[in-house]
Amino acid sequence: MHDVIVVGGGPAGSSCAYWLADAGWDVVVVEKKHFPRVKTCGDGLTPRAVRQLADMGLEDALAGSHKYSGLRAYGFGQSIEMQWPEHPNFPNYGYTITRHDLDGLVAERAVKAGAALLAGTEVVAPIIAEAGSPSSSPTGSLPQLKGVTIKEKAGTGNGSGGERELRARYVVIADGANSRVGRMLGTNRRRDLPLGMALRGYYTSDRHDDPFIESHLDIRDAEGNVVPGYGWIFPMGDGRVNVGVGLLSTDRRWKGVNTSHLMDAFVNWAPDSWGLSPETSLGPPTGGKLPMGLSVGPRAGANVLLAGDAAGTINPFNGEGIAYGYETGRLAAAALGHALSGEGPRALADYDRQIDAAYGPYYKVARAFVRMISNPQAMKLCVGVGMRSEFIMSQLLRIMANLMRPDAPGPAEIGFRAMELISRLLPDEVAALEAVTSEAFSARAS
Ligand SMILES: Cc1cc2nc3c(=O)[nH]c(=O)nc-3n(C[C@H](O)[C@H](O)[C@H](O)COP(=O)(O)OP(=O)(O)OC[C@H]3O[C@@H](n4cnc5c(N)ncnc54)[C@H](O)[C@@H]3O)c2cc1C
Questions:
Q1: Among 41, 352, 355, 398, whose CB has the most other CB atoms within 10 angstroms?
Q2: Cα 195 to Cα 406: distance, rounded to the nearest angstrom
Q3: Is the pLDDT of residue 438 over 50?
Q4: Structural fold of domain 2-66+96-191+292-359
Q5: Nearest residue (CA) to ligand 1, atom 17
Q6: Ligand 1 pocket, residue 339 CB under 6 Å
Q7: 85 lines ligand 1 (CB under 6 A)
């Protein structure tokens, strides 16, 4: 009988295990793959993610990775370079590092702090303590668990490859975007909230150590028409760049878009200086889903919590999920520390409320924003106006990377506050805003 079982050893699971082990609790992480393992990602760490890694004592371990200083945005023929802002709580730089290297580092750190890691072991089912069907409402609760049933890959552990039960007082579900285990407990994603879909591949490039990561706000098809989506080129510092395209479900046209064609068109269209071509490609791209904006629930039960992508915690403004995995894993660990110290299930309900308080209002604005810019005319207007002013774009960067300053409210903070007040007056789905802007822009266009 462990104190806590963590399902999944990605950013959310490993950070949760690290903070629990660091506090002296008996925690076991069950991870179906062996580290190092490949994970499809843009490999970009923002200052928020770097802060979490530094807090886990891992910044020195990033020394060999590519340190970069800001973002270059491209849109409608213009480009702007923006340094990460100065902030009292976050550094003014980020890193790029493959998940192959990063996730193993954090899992190893959790083990050094005292966590047990069962790698090459899959959670095949939760063991539900009570009779009765699991909740199916995002606002309901999760069933009580006794533990999980695990299956070791042949050649792992005792090599039996058989199934066995693992028991714990508390269970954290951090099994990522597909969250099979979460869904077995009855979690579901709100389909009215945005979902991202992205594809990435690696290329060799002379600009592999560029000091800026690059984001393309208008990407084109083979005929040069703007298509719904965005593109990125992230220098990796090791001879490679990570190149990707993403789409949001808020754009009704996304269902008709073939992401592989979109990727080919982006590679064709990207600035020549990156040297992207089929010849410099290091292999076919791979893709994945980005559950965002707190779209998945319920997040808590009497002895179960969800963290990271399993809870849909990706930031809709920029598709960043690693930092939010670390942060929600850490919040889950703190709540479980209280629960194990005697507070019991009340502490888990507090976790649910803390997530809402920490990200709810911000993500509500983000969801409204992505819905609005999913309208092609609105997107063109916003990007067109923004790209003419370095000042506007640098304020937007602070908002979109969640790096606003609590201590020194400036234009970004004041602008965001205004957006937050407006979004509070609107129904959560802001369908009304979307409808109004769509109609207004369609009318203008015609
Ligand atoms: C194409 C793409 C590009 C992205 N780019 C970026 C980026 O540049 N920066 C950024 O911050 N975010 C990015 N993201 C988002 C980011 O990858 C995720 O938000 C992040 O990985 C979430 O961490 P997690 O720990 O919740 O889940 P994951 O990283 O998915 O970890 C879940 C872990 O659980 C394990 N697992 C799953 N099921 C089981 C099971 N049944 N039993 C045992 N183990 C299990 C998996 O093997 C995995 O190791 C990108 C996503 C995609 C798809």
A1: 355
A2: 29
A3: no
A4: FAD/NAD(P)-binding domain (3.50.50)
A5: 41
A6: no
A7: no
Tell whether ligand 1 has an atom less than 6 A from the beta carbon of residue 312.
no
> Can you tell me the mean pLDDT for 259-268?
91
Which of 292, 309, 313 to probe ligand 1 with, by most ligand atoms within 8 A of CB?
309
Other beta carbons within 10 Å of 107: 26
CB of 152 shorter than 6 A to ligand 1:
no
Q: Which of 280, 227, 305, 256 is nearest to 17 (CA)?
A: 305
CA dihedral 48, 54, 60, 65 (to 10 degrees): -20
Nearest CA to ligand 1 atom 6: 42
Q: Do 115 and 28 contact (CB within 8 A), yes or no? A: yes
Q: Ligand 1: does its nearest atom lie under 6 Å from the Cβ of 171?
A: no
Q: Which amino acid residue places its CA nearest to atom 38 of ligand 1?
A: 175
Residue 171 is predicted with a pLDDT of: 98
Confirm or reject: Cβ of 382 under 6 Å from ligand 1.
Answer: no
What whole-number distance in Å separates Cα of residue 45 and Cα of residue 61?
Answer: 14
- Beta-ladder partners of 171: 5, 304
| For the CA of 324, the nearest atom of ligand 1 | 19
Q: How far apart are CA 122 and CA 128, in angstroms?
A: 17
Residue 11 makes CB contacts below 8 A (sequence gap 6+) with 103, 106, 308, 321, 322, 325, 326, 329
**N residues, the chain:** 446
| Span from the CA of 99 to the centroid of ligand 1 (angstroms) | 9
314, two tokens: 């990706």
Backbone angles phi, psi at 274, to 5 degrees: -75, -20
| Two tokens, residue 316 | 């809709």
**pLDDT tens digits for 398-431?**
999 999 998 888 999 998 888 888 777 766 555 5
Q: Is 11 a pocket residue for ligand 1 (Cβ < 6 Å)? A: yes
pLDDT digits (tens, 9 = 90+) for 165-224: 999 999 999 999 999 999 999 999 998 888 999 999 999 999 999 999 999 988 887 777
CA nearest to 388, candidates 81, 82, 80: 80
pLDDT, mean of residues 346-358: 95
Question: Ligand 1 within 6 A of 198 CB?
Answer: yes
The ranges assigned to domains in the chain are 2-66+96-191+292-359, 195-290, 363-445
